[in-house]
Amino acid sequence: MAESSAQPKKRGYKWFVISGAILLALVLMPFVFGGDDPSTVSASTTTTIQRGRLVSSVLGSGTINPKQSLDLTFQTTGIVSTVLVSEGQQVVAGQILAELDDRNLALSVLSAEANLQSAQARLRQTQEGNARPEDLAASQASVDNAKANLQKTVTGNATAADIASAQASVANAEAQLRKAKNGTATPADLANAEASVRSAQAKLDDLRAGPKPEKVSSAQVTLDQAKSSLEQVKSDASKAKNQAALDRDTAANAVRNAQTSLSQVYWETHDADGNWKKKPDDFGYQTDVDRYNNAVRDEQDAQTKLDAAQLAYDNAVTQEGLDIANAEAKVRDAEVQLQTVLKGATALEITQAEAALDQAQANLDKLKQGGTADDVAAAQANLDQAKANLRKLTQGGTAADVAAAQANVDQANANLDKLTAPPTDTDLAIQEAAVSQSEQSLKQAQLQRDNATLRAPFAGVITSVSIVPGGPSSGVVMHILDRSGLYVELNLSETDVALVTLNQKVELTIDALDAWSAEGTVSYISPVAEVSNGVVIYRVKISVPSNDPMVKVGMTVNTNIILSEKSDVLLVPNSALLPKGSGRVVQVPDGAGVREVDVVTGISDGSFTEVLSGLNEGDTIIAVPTAASDSGNGGLFGGGR
C-alpha cells in the first residue's frame, strides 16, 4: 500500500484492513510463540482463501486551507472614524468595513474641483476672447493716463498741486539738513542713551563684586541632587540586573527540565538504534509520536525563553552602565557649575562688560554732539534732489523722461490690443494644459478620499479586527478569509505522486472531529518537484466539499487517496506469497508435505493481495511459508506487493 510522506494517520483505516491484521496475527501466533516446527504443515499455519473488498490507496495528512485570505490595510493614513464589522462577521464583496476621518480629504476634493472650474473658465475666456467690459475700460484708462503723463512730460505743465507737493519736499529736506548740522537727538533719545550707560555700569559693578551667596547655594543644591540621583540610579540598575539574572537562571532550569523530559520520552518511544518502537499500524503509535513532538516543542519553547532571558540580562547590564554614566556626568556638570560660581567673573567677562560701558557712553556723547559729516552730506543730497524735482515740474522733462513716458503709452496700447486680439495657439495650449493638470489633481484628491474607506475585496468572514474608532490606521487592520473553496495541501514523494491523478476520490477525516468524514477529490498536482530537507516532494491539493462550521481552517486532516477499489475478489495474505522468477507462488498442503502453486496477482493494500488466477475460493494455503523450493529464501513476508 502506497503511503504519503506526511505523518501516518492516527485512525480511519477501513474495516477490512483491521480484520486482515487480526487474521494475520491469529495465523502468525503459533509460529511466533513457539508452535510446531515451521517445516511441518499443520492446521494452525494454514489459511483459507476468501472473497472480499480491496482498496489500494495513498495515505497522508495536511491542514485545512481557505480558497483565499488577505491582510487588509488602508491605502492612506489617518484616524479611524468608524468600524462597521467585527470578528467572525460574514461580508460580501465591496461591503464597507471601516472608514477614516475624511474631512480634510473632502476639503481637498472641493479645492481641486474649484481649481478645475477656474482653469476651465480661463480656457473658455482664452478661446472666446471675451474680455469683460470693466477690463476693457481699465485698459483704456491706462492708455489715456499714459498719454496724459507723456503730454505733461513734454510740455512741463505741472498742476498747482504738483508744484505745492514738490515745494513741501524741498522744505522738509531743508529741515532735515538743519537737524543734521545742529544735532538730531530728542530728549527721549538722550534719556534712553543715559539709561543704557547706567545699565552697563551696573552690570560691570556686579561682575567685579564676585559670586553672590544665593547663586552659590543654588549650585550646591544642584550638585547634592545630582549625587543623590546617582545613588538611586545605581540602586535601581542593580535591582534590575539581579532580577534579570534570576529570570535567566529560572529559564535555564526550565531548559534542563524540558531536556530531561524529552530524553525520557525519546527512550520510551525509540529503541537503541533511534527507530520508533511501535510501527505506524500499531495501536498507540500516533500517541507516541504526539508525546515526542510535544516534548520537542516544550524543549524548543524553553530554549527560546532562555535566549530571551539571557538577552534581557545582557540589556540590563548594558543599561546599568549607561544609566550610571549619565548620572555621573550630571554630577560632574554640577561640580563644574559650582566651581564656576565660586570663582566669580572671569577677566574676559569683566573686559567685555567694560567695553559695553564704553560703547554706551560713546553713543550718549554722539547724541549730545550732533550729526557727523556723513549725516550732513546725506541730508544735503536729499535737499538737492528735492530742488531738482521742483525745477523739473516747472521747466518740463528731459529727453530721457519723454522717452520713458512714451514707452508707458506704448505698453498701455499693447495691453489694450491684447484684450481685443484673438488667442494664439500658445495661449490655448497653456490653458488646456492647466485644465488637464487640474483634472488630474481632482482625480488624485478623489482617490485619496476613496482610500479612506476600506471595502471587502471578496466575500468571506472577518477573522481579526485590530483597529478602534479614534485610533491610527497604520499596518494591517483586518484579516478576511474566504471559506467557499476549502482544500488540503499534501507533500507526496515522487513514488506516491506517480500513482495519483486528477479527480481521484479522497476519503477525509479529522482527528479533532470524531464524527466527521467527507469525500474530496484531487484538484491539483504540481508539475514541478520541490526539495525539502534533501527530500524530493510534490505538492498536491485536495478539495474539501464541506461548509460545516466545525471544520476550521488550520485543522489537521487525514487523507486517503483511493487509487483503485475492487469488490468480491479472492484475497491472499501478503505473508503467503513467495517470489518465483518474475511471478509469485503460494504453498498448498499436499499430504505430509507441500506443493507450490503459481498465482497471478492484482492490486494490494499492503496486507492482502488480489489473486486473479491459480486459486479458488475455499482453497487452503500455507499462511507463512518458509521459502520457495527453487528460489532461495524469500523472507518472512516474501515480496508481497
Automatic annotation (TrEMBL):
Per the record, the major location class is: other
Q: Where in the cell is it found?
A: Cell envelope
Q: Which domain of life is it from?
A: Bacteria
**Regions annotated as coiled coil:** 163-243, 324-396, 428-455
Keywords from the named record: Coiled coil, Membrane, Transmembrane, Transmembrane helix
What region holds the YknX-like beta-barrel domain?
487-561
- Spans through the membrane: 12-33
- Pfam families, per database record: Beta-barrel_YknX
Is this entry keyworded Transmembrane?
yes
Q: Known Gene3D superfamilies for this protein?
A: 2.40.30.170, 2.40.420.20, 2.40.50.100, Helix hairpin bin
UniProt keyword annotation of Membrane present: yes
Hey, which family's this protein in? Answer: Belongs to the membrane fusion protein (MFP) (TC 8.A.1) family.
Q: PANTHER family this protein is in?
A: BLL5650 PROTEIN, EFFLUX SYSTEM COMPONENT YKNX-RELATED
Name of the protein this chain belongs to: Multidrug resistance protein MdtA
